[in-house]
Amino acid sequence: MHLRSGLLLLLVSAGVWSVPIDRNEVHQDAKDDGQEENMDTGLYYDRYLREVIEVLETDPHFREKLQTANTEDIKNGRLSKELDLVSHNVRTRLDELKRQEVSRLRMLLKAKLDSTNTQTGVQMDHASLLKQFEHLDPHNQNTFEAKDLELLISTATKDLENYDAERHEEFKRYEMLKEHERREYLKSLDQEKREKEEKRMQELKEKHRQHPKVNAPGSVAQLREVWEETDGLDPKEFNPKTFFKLHDTNEDGVLDEQELEALFTKELEKVYDPKNEEDDMMEMEEERLRMREDVMKNVDTNKDRLVSLEEFLKSTEKKEFNNPREWETLDAKSLYTEEELQRFEAELRDKEEELKKRAETLHQEQELLKERGKALEAQRREYQQAVLEMSQRQKERQAADGQPPAGPRGELQFQPPKAEDKAGKVAVEAEVQNHLPAEPPQNLPTHT
Fold first, then answer.
1. Which of 19, 217, 255, 368 has the smallest number of CB atoms closer than 10 Å to its CB?
2. What gap in Å lies between CA 7 and CA 51, rounded to an integer?
3. Radius of gyration (Cα) for the chain, nearest Å?
4. How far is CA 269 from CA 175, 248, 280, 287, in A?
5. What is the mean pLDDT of residues 308-322?
6. Do residues 21 and 66 lie in contact, with contact meaning Cβ atoms separated by under 8 Å?
7. Largest Cα–Cα distance of the chain, in whole Å?
């Protein structure tokens, strides 16, 4: 097995991904092929996890320790103490990554609180709220320490070990929702149409079941089919070692989960066709997941969720490899009981009722806003009418008092004097002159 990133090995043990040691070479190959590596774990802290790994891999000392560590050492967090020996530059970059992650989590918390209307008027205690996130130390929000690495490893391992189980549960709910919608649709029809539709659905179900035999994944029949139809080789010359190397597409010495799942495509195409109404592609992906789990259960002896060449060759020596059972597809088994379906439908009714209440509340709030808007519009119109009436009364008073009319803003406008006004002014001035003495008095007595 080629050397690989030790820290990624811990994620491999939890079913994530693997990357060869020479990252530059791998990235160049990916660019040459026009492909990108798919490293998304599905975790809400996936980006933070990948960035921490990438930074740690740049430190020669930490890289060397990882190459010599076993899976349990990594999973148990025993390598966390090595963080104290990495370079200052690496520690600085890790600190910055942690601060960015804390900032992102704070934004998530704020958005969550805002959406539930619980944040109004309340001072958020970020340190307390951040405790719900287990992949970092919330008490120290500025620097990346050994505890952060230990928490990141343990949380990722735990979360990813439950990933497949959560996918199965999600698919189960999907199937129950389909059955619920089918029953509700049939209820909406009259008896004649309902009987006709039930018959059509049953025919589609039977048509889906009429597919060729599906070989058990990982069996000689299944692998030889890939060897012949995908690889274009003579089935009589089937060689397990050559087969392994052909399908170790990244040449890292192991078959990871993606490489294994690619082997099942031919078997799945026997059952599922996207052009057929009776075939559900969601069911096909669930079938693929079940096949991969079955192979891992029988071949992956060290439970690191990778199939090494040694494990693969040993599996070809087992009796089950040459005499496998026929694979039981999803259409041959029931995924849920009637009781489980009834509980699921009760949940749907509760959620529907809750949504109705929320919709009614929103409708009432909308109507209230409309009424307030109408009241504000009426007030605006009343104000405009009052202003117009006040301006008109002012003009009328000014006209009655002989004042010049007000301007557009209420100011008095200049009016030139009329002819009769000028004649009157001249007569008044003449009358005043007739009553004045011809000369001012002379020699008035003075006081000493």
1. 368
2. 12
3. 43
4. 21, 22, 12, 11
5. 92
6. no
7. 157
